[in-house]
Q: What sequence folds into this?
């Protein structure tokens, strides 16, 4: 018997007086904790290199 057996099947609570958060806003909460630090810059650098090759 788990310590959460009494609450595991209860419905998820949603406060109807507050709007749901968008997926974009929810993701933004965790942006400071990104595990791939520097990845965006690497992608931008590579894209710039590829665009310069095409010209």
A:
């Amino acid at each position: 018997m788990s310590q959460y057996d009494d609450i595991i099947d209860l419905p998820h609570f949603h406060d109807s007086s507050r709007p749901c958060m968008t997926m974009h806003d929810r993701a933004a909460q965790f942006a400071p904790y990104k595990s791939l630090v520097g990845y965006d810059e690497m992608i931008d650098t590579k894209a710039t290199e590829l665009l310069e090759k095409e010209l």
Q: What stands out?
A: The longest helix spans residues 39-54. The helical segments are 23-29, 39-54. The chain has a mean pLDDT of 87.
